[in-house]
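Encode chain A's predicted structure.
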Amino acid sequence: MTDELTIDTSTDTDDAATKETSLNTQPPQDTGDWHSQLSEEYKNHPSIQKFTDVNGMAKSYLSLESLMGQEKVPIPKNAEDINAWNVVHKAFGVPESPDKYDLKVEGAENLKLDEFKQRLFKNHISQEAAQDLLNAHIEDFKQYKQMEAQAFNDAAAKATADLKQEWGLKYEENLKQANTFLEKMSSSKEEYDYFNNLIGNDAKFIKLLSKMGNSISEGNLGGFEGQNGGFTKTPAEAKQALDEILNNPDDAFWAGARNKRNDMKYCKEHNLSYVSEDERKARVDYVNSLMQMQGQS
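Encoded structure for chain A:
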């Protein structure tokens, strides 16, 4: 019995073919000149030119394919692209027209709402965003009004302090006279309120009103009859009146001390007005009041 002879019929050529087939199954290498393989109508297209390699184009394609089937919103070409804008508005919740905005405006009663809605619509603002913007505006407006009121009150407090220091005990009367004069010069309560809110916290303005009222009415505007005779004075006025009395030895204040005006016989002989004890005491009280007005007591 002889052994079966096995003949190897493979050749080096077959091995080379097998290797070549195996190599051809590998992913093609990016040679960098893939653009040259495209037809002219695609090769120079801007959307193709932006890719530097075929992998980048493949990635972009796959990403675009994943979006297929989703709801799409067109990009309007310009402001006149009405159809596209209508689609955009519907997608993002923008009302069909400015008057369709439903806004809560509590705290912004003075807002020109129609103009505000026109601006919202022109800028393609959604209903939700429009209310959010309005709420922010109202809050800013409230804060501004609070700051404005605080500034007015601070200025009024300073004006009050300055006038009290300058006018002393005459402050209340002068302030009332200024206020009464402003009321009489105003044609209506609205006009009075306007001027009072505008510069009613200005010390110079209040002083001007007081002077004008005094010069025009001679003390009769606000029921201050006699104030021009010296019943109430500012510290400066009181000092001047006090100095005149204390430096005048013939004044009634000095009757019996520096002059003899308390002596009726002497007054007749020297043609002087007689000062009774009650008049002298009244003069002393007046001097004391001047000292008080000046801030000395």
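Residues 168-228 form one domain.
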